[in-house]
Specification:
- The chain crosses the membrane at residues 96-115, 138-157, 169-190, 210-231, 336-355.
- GO terms for molecular function: 9,15,9'-tri-cis-zeta-carotene isomerase activity.
- Residues 140-358 form the NnrU domain.
- The protein is mainly α.
- It is built from 13 helices and 4 strands.
- A two-stranded antiparallel ribbon has the order 1-4.
- The longest helix has 29 residues, at 274-302.
- The protein is globular and about 55 Å long.
- The chain starts with a strand and ends with a helix.
Length: 367
């Protein structure tokens, strides 16, 4: 991608560097002290020889960005990427055939090596964790904690891991380790969600089920922004660390945290017992750490570009919009009328109606 420069609103032109970098600002009052903008040592995005006048960095809130990356400046002023942008014309049938094959192989290995009680290690793992305490709350929390440590730990090792074994191999390692632990945690929750002490009983409250159902439904639009590119998830395409900025990211910079909180609150209110509380504490704690860790990793990877995105987004939903840091486009709704969001809608509705099947499958595992 061509090297580019983002100018603040005070300037009307966009120029490109060729050869040795030179300043394009004609104002004689510019401070000629140069400041490298790649203070985060961002390899591949900002080059050490690309410099800007230091007082230009203070010209406006839109910091100048130079570099080669997937986060080149778009015509609508985005420094980050346009999330959920699915271009059907760019899709290859062979890639999706390959994806289907990879998915089938993964599910087969998961069944044989983990789920099947006669051949897999899933039941042994659950029994080992459960042996720590007779309390289902303790087991539930420990399962969540183990998943969180492995998942976030491997995420933190992504940069050195990809350099060591490559992007695709590290994605296989990451998914192959995280997926079985996630399945075990979910299955244990389904099978033991009504164990433990009943703290409250609100299931007979009128309209409550409908309110919680809507909350849970909306939560999935926040929970899965990282799966916008399924081909990368399955390592069919080379996995990348994305700096999303549009769509749900305008509402909150950490939609998975917000979605997880919504899901946990809805399920805990409905179930009303100590196991649900233990699961929610573990999951929300994991995502709070993930939000901090995610910002840290993006700052290392994207440097000043991430600081720009961070300055006009918020963790608390709608906070950046309300205080004027985030300006929504007039056609903002179009950022949601896209295939990935439609897919999430269909899968969420399908998962709701498939609850009896999910419960029956979990019960058969005897975990």
């Amino acid at each position: 991608m061509a090297t580019s420069i983002l100018l603040s609103n005070s300037f009307s032109t966009i120029s490109q560097f060729t050869g040795r970098p030179k300043f394009i600002f004609s104002n004689p009052k510019l401070n000629l002290t140069v400041t490298p903008i790649n203070s985060y040592s961002n390899i591949g995005f900002l080059k050490g020889t690309q410099l800007l006048p230091s007082n230009c960095l203070r010209k406006s809130r839109r910091v100048f960005v130079i570099g080669e990356s997937d986060t080149s400046v778009s015509k609508d002023g985005l420094v980050g990427e346009d999330s959920a942008n699915f271009d059907l014309a760019k899709q290859k049938i062979t890639s999706w055939i390959y994806f289907t094959g990879v998915l089938g192989v993964v599910l087969l290995i998961l069944d044989v090596a983990w789920l099947d009680n006669s051949t897999g290690f899933g039941k042994v793992f659950i029994d080992s964790v459960s042996s720590v305490s007779d309390s289902p709350e303790v087991a539930m929390f420990l399962l969540t904690l183990i998943f969180a440590v492995v998942h976030s730990g491997l995420a933190s090792l992504r940069d050195p891991g990809e350099k060591l074994i490559g992007e695709r191999a590290f994605r296989v390692l990451f998914a192959g380790t995280s997926l079985p632990l996630a399945v075990s945690t979910i299955v244990y929750f389904i099978n033991h969600r009504y164990d433990g002490a009943q703290l409250w009983q609100l299931q007979n409250v009128p309209v409550l089920h409908h309110l919680l159902w809507i909350t849970n439904f909306v939560s999935f639009f926040f929970l899965y922004p990282s799966t916008f590119n399924l081909l990368e998830v399955a390592a069919v395409d080379k996995p990348k660390m994305h700096l999303w900025e549009s769509g749900i990211m305008r509402i909150t910079r950490h939609p998975q945290l917000v979605g997880q909180v919504m899901w946990c609150v809805a399920h805990t209110i409905w179930i009303g017992n100590s196991v649900a509380v233990a699961a929610s504490v573990g999951l929300i704690g994991h995502h709070l750490f993930g939000a901090w860790n995610g910002d840290r990793r993006l700052a290392i990877r994207y440097g000043e570009a991430f600081e720009v995105v961070k300055s006009r987004t918020s963790i608390l939903p709608f906070a950046a919009i309300l205080d004027g840091r985030q300006k929504l486009p007039k056609d903002y709704y179009k950022e949601f009328i896209r295939l990935p969001y439609l897919t999430i809608t269909g899968l969420t509705l399908g998962a709701y109606f498939a609850h009896p099947l999910m419960q029956a499958a979990s019960f058969r595992l005897h975990w």
